[in-house]
Amino acid sequence: MKKLILLNILLSSFASAQNYHDFMYEQVTIIDGFIGKIESYNSKTGIYCRESCHIYAPPLKEQIMISLTEEEKSDLWKTRKKFGNYVFAECSKNKNVAVKSYFYFEKEKYPPRCIENDRQKAQFIELNMTLRQILESKSEYRKVFYWEFINK
Length: 152
What we know:
Helix content is 36%, strand content 32%. With 152 residues, the chain is α+β, with helices and mostly antiparallel strands. Strands 4-3-2-1-6-5-7 form a 7-stranded mixed beta sheet.
């Protein structure tokens, strides 16, 4: 009887132990065929990186550690699960500027594919804005990118 109770406790703790998956976010901006900016975040390592690349200037790389809580990762995962089995990417092009951004969560088997309709676009924007709001709320982000908050 004690073994059954112990087994039941262990199984329930495993089931509720992790209700999120770590993820990688990346956005690449291409201007006139050259990479102009790369922004990325890895939730497993906590590394947030912005890299600006210019034809006539050396690259500028800003990298900081921003750890997300399990609750924040869980919120992002809940939003991601609305997509179903696919990983969507925003793929847009306007004259000489192309942007591709995507989320890739652990254990996903499908490669990212471009958004195909307004519903998918709205879901992707919700996921992207959720991450953006979480990152911008962190003191580490506000210290490094302080100029974004001067008039806010």
